[in-house]
Write a structure and sequence with these properties.
about 70% helix, globular, single chain
């Protein structure tokens, strides 16, 4: 969450938006996303990734776009590269239609 905020704030700084202004806009989104944590916990505990809330392929496309925008803005991809690499591997291994929560399987 905090690395995502810092990355977003860096991108917004490039277009003249302050970190404080970005934070005001980010809080409602982060709050909404936090509501999904119990569902993700249930999915991870059950180990069934076949009925995705959002697929790995969806997240791959989003991170590809974020990565391009980051490079175009002249910002380092240090924060997004690790999760992008992990998702790229999972999609390349044929898991693109599965739930994003499957990423835990590469962490343990």
């Amino acid at each position: 969450m905090f690395t995502g905020f810092m990355h977003g704030a860096a991108m917004m700084r490039c277009v003249g938006v302050s970190a404080s202004a970005f934070a005001e806009r980010a809080v409602p989104w982060v709050t909404a996303m936090a509501q999904m944590l119990p569902a993700y916990g249930t999915i991870v505990d059950g180990g069934d990734y076949t009925n995705p809330i959002q697929s790995l392929a969806f997240h791959k496309a989003a991170l590809d776009a974020i990565n391009r925008a980051t490079r175009d803005a002249g910002i380092t991809t240090d924060f997004v590269a690790p999760i992008k690499n992990l998702i790229d591997r999972q999609v390349a291994d044929g898991h693109g239609t599965l739930e994003f929560a499957r990423t835990i399987e590469e962490l343990v």
